[in-house]
Amino acid sequence: MTRVLLTGATGYIGSHTAVELVNAGYEVVGVDNFSNSNPKVLEGIEKITGKPIDFMEVDCRDFDAFAKVFEKFPDIEAVIHFAASKAVGESVQKPLMYYDNNIRGLINLTKLMVEKGKGASIVFSSSCTVYGQPTPENLPITEQAPIQPATSPYGRTKQMCEDILTDCVKAYGNLSVTALRYFNPIGAHPSAFIGELPNGVPQNLVPYITQTAAGIRECLTVFGDDYNTPDGSCIRDYIYVVDLAKAHVKAIDRMLSPNDGSRERFEIFNLGTGRGLSVLELVHAFEKATGVKLNYRIGPRREGDTEQVWANPAKANKVLGWSADTPVEEILASAWRWQQTL
Ligand code: UFG
Questions:
Q1: Which of 131, 154, 227, 238 is an active site residue?
Q2: Which is nearest to 120 in space by CA: 182, 168, 86?
């Protein structure tokens, strides 16, 4: 069996990916410091797959503790590096925490992988945030679109991490990297055993919608209806977290298969649906999917928001043989089921 290490294994995307990797026959070892998740997620993963994953509580900033994972599991063949802080607003308040966690974690991991000697494959969790607000001629956005100055320290860490990995691939002949640029992941596993666990008041749209529907929040504020879009609200590419998790399995399959010459040592893929939805369209899709009437009002724009961005996922469709096509109503119904179990 092929062993894959997941950092941030109990996080939102990490936990869904652990499930898909186990289902695909991989041996998974997870690490997490539970800074934005909790040990119960491991039980959720086990309930779905029917067997526990190997797990160590480790902070990727702690090099010596991290090294022990590789001592205990010398057969690790590839790593998916999810572990990172990801709240845009918080990153503006605490930039040092973001640079420390996101950059140091990646450097430690890369060192450990490169030092392993033989093939070192890293899948890196990146974000469409690296594109900033694309100009209209760049929409839908391909991997060739220009990288724009980041609008937050969080976004800057994703750009820096991609740069670090680019340099390392050039310098270390045993290293291969796949950077996956996620659009907006939403929804929960259909079993409702795992899902997103936002800390405090949700910053992201879908957890805010489900908490409002559940009566935890009084009213959803739609941040702006005066954008240059058909209904005036912002447009995003919302991708089902389970579809996103499956893309990681495809990326790992590809990195670990013999190279027929078509695979470069640093590859980038946009992971989105190719379909842009506005905030208001998503709100109405939620109402339609669940039959729950949502209390919402139009408020002012949120500072730093991108007006519209959605993916051209053609490269991932073709090269990875993957596509995200779960209907949005089904995705929102899964988010609602998960909210009701919380
Ligand atoms: N929105 C609302 N009301 C809310 C929350 C969000 O109207 O209460 C709107 C936002 O203005 C935006 C859309 O819903 O138009 C999506 O907002 P999210 O916060 O859910 O997602 P973002 O697109 O802002 O951010 C996400 C990730 C980031 C990542 C970024 C890349 O959270 O980690 O995508 O563009 F960097």
A1: 154
A2: 168
Residue pair 294/213 in contact (Cβ under 8 Å)? The answer is: yes
Asked, for residue 76, whether it belongs to a domain, the answer is yes
Query: Which atom of ligand 1 is nearest to 220's Cα?
Result: 8
Does 27 map to a domain? yes
Total domains, the chain: 1
CATH of the domain at 263: 3.40.50.720
Domain with 248, as residue range(s), is 3-187+239-272
The verdict on whether 131 is a catalytic residue reads: no
Please list, in sequence order, all residues whose beta carbon lies within 8 angstroms of the beta carbon of residue 264, skipping any fewer than 6 positions away.
none
**In a mutational test of the pocket of ligand 1, which residue from 36, 127, 184 has the highest number of ligand atoms less than 8 Å from its CB?**
184
CB 248, CB 123: distance < 8 Å:
yes
Residue 95, classed as helix, strand or coil, is helix
Closest CA to 112 of 122, 124, 102: 122
Type of residue at 311: A
| % of the chain residues with pLDDT over 90 | 92
CB of 150 within 6 A of ligand 1: the answer is no
Say if ligand 1 is within 6 A of residue 279 CB.
yes
Per-residue pLDDT tens digits for 105-135 = 999 999 999 998 678 999 999 999 999 889 9
Q: Report d(CA 135, CA 139) in Å as an integer.
A: 7
Cα(205) to centroid(ligand 1), Å: 6
| Other residues' Cβ atoms within 10 Å of the Cβ of residue 208 | 19
pLDDT at 138: 94
CA distance 256 to 250: 10
